[in-house]
Amino acid sequence: MRKKPFLEIIKMNKLLVLTLSLVLAACSSTKSGNTLPAISLSLLNTLTLAEHPLRTHQPALQRVELPPYFTVTAEAEPSLASVVFSINGVAIYTDSRAPFNLHEGDDKAIDWDVRKGRFEIEAIGYSKENASGDKLAYGRVMVEILDQGLPEAVADTSGEAVKLWAEEHLDSVMTPKSMQAASGLNLPYRIYVPESYDASVKYPLFVHLHGRGERGSDNSDRIYRSSNRIFSGTRSLVSPAMQQRFPSIVIVPQCSHQTDAEEWARWAGDLDQASGSYTQHPEPSESSQAVRELIELVQNQYSVDDKRIYLEGLSMGGMGTWELSMRWPEVFAAGVPMAGWSAQGQVARIADIPFWIFHGGADEWNPVVGSRNMYDLLRSHNATVKYTEYEGHRHSQTFYRAGEDESLLPWIFSQRKN
Question: Considering the entire predicted model, what is its pTM?
Answer without folding.
Answer: 0.71
